[in-house]
């Protein structure tokens, strides 16, 4: 299959009402004007999501397919090129194509750097679009696509290096998808810890792993985290992976902290009623999946000049006689006390101790990721994550990384006056302050556990962690995290 990315501008007609674009004109003449006829019949105008296919007999290619890129210009849209890659992957599945070549109808206005970006985004779409998680199905079809050739996106080592980087990131995304897709009866806190240890042993030249059990967490006075874990038959596991570069000195120390609730029943404030999504609460460890996916990718990329700590306080939020009750007071490892007025606001309780632990590693910057609040989904919908931080500098870094990765983040306010709603009569704070501004209140809560000297940013990814239409995990945030870590390197 030959796949051609076509913008609306590329579909301009000449004086004979035929293709004006030189590549489309050449392809059309090679195939006796059939390509133009097919595009006309199928009303193909280059709009995003459109496609037109010319089936050929005899010599390769068996098909010439046009895919719409919309108004995308000068390589400005990573997501448009990623969507092109996904469209090619699904077309290859449908036609059972073994080999594909990809080009654009026009490379006009694309610098050599933006050509590499476009090629990388297309490759991401193809790799992730070809992948299917069939581990829990009795029967499954294997993808047929074996090779993809990139025409016009650059040559030699530069393109190869960019595509290798893309492949490394995609292996991290696929790991994260598999972790989130795994049901809670398979992926327990212990199994999540084993996955972290597997990353450390695979890339032992750059990684070390430390897994803390209940007793060790008690010694560190992690009362907030252990309070959430207390009701489960599956013991909690506190995961700490540390990446150190293979050579050279460390200029920056970073931490990635992920919420790791392998299942969230809500506790005694049990999730009930339509829309509570209790059956999907296996995805409440999406933040930890992003952190471990990024770790796997970085283990292959091996950036220099940066040390990275990957931290997850993994546990389940269940119900039993030993469980935390509404109204209980727990004490976090920094000595702050929390009145638990809602056991279903548990993720922040686990993150509290994880953030204190991260600060104690002597890091300069922390990014935490969590499927934290339904309020953020109400505010931003299902495809945009909320960003909360007191640091303009860190916000700029992470938002630039997300743009390069083609993932959608939106900075939200840290409205300090709202903290009044989080005051307790009997403890330092409550763990939730009601429905209004819920995602802001959650971020203000987390801030209480971060050292003022450390730059910190919180990503609420409750919306984009899961694709409702495809009923599968998205692997959200890994690309952004890897871009951010790499942007902090000295290499």
TrEMBL record:
It catalyses: Release of N-terminal proline from a peptide; Release of an N-terminal amino acid, Xaa-|-Yaa-, in which Xaa is preferably Leu, but may be other amino acids including Pro although not Arg or Lys, and Yaa may be Pro. Amino acid amides and methyl esters are also readily hydrolyzed, but rates on arylamides are exceedingly low. InterPro entries: Leucine_aapep/pepB, Macro_dom-like, Peptidase_M17_C, Peptidase_M17_leu_NH2_pept, Peptidase_M17_N. Keywords: Aminopeptidase, Hydrolase, Metal-binding, Protease, Stress response. GO terms for biological process: proteolysis. Gene3D superfamilies: Leucine Aminopeptidase, subunit E, domain 1 (3.40.220.10), Zn peptidases (3.40.630.10). Residues 342-349 form the Cytosol aminopeptidase domain. One of its GO terms (cellular component) is cytoplasm. It holds the Pfam family Peptidase_M17. One of its GO terms (molecular function) is manganese ion binding. Belongs to the peptidase M17 family. Homohexamer (dimer of homotrimers). This is Cytosol aminopeptidase domain-containing protein. It comes from Centaurea solstitialis. The lineage of its organism: Eukaryota, Viridiplantae, Streptophyta, Embryophyta, Tracheophyta.
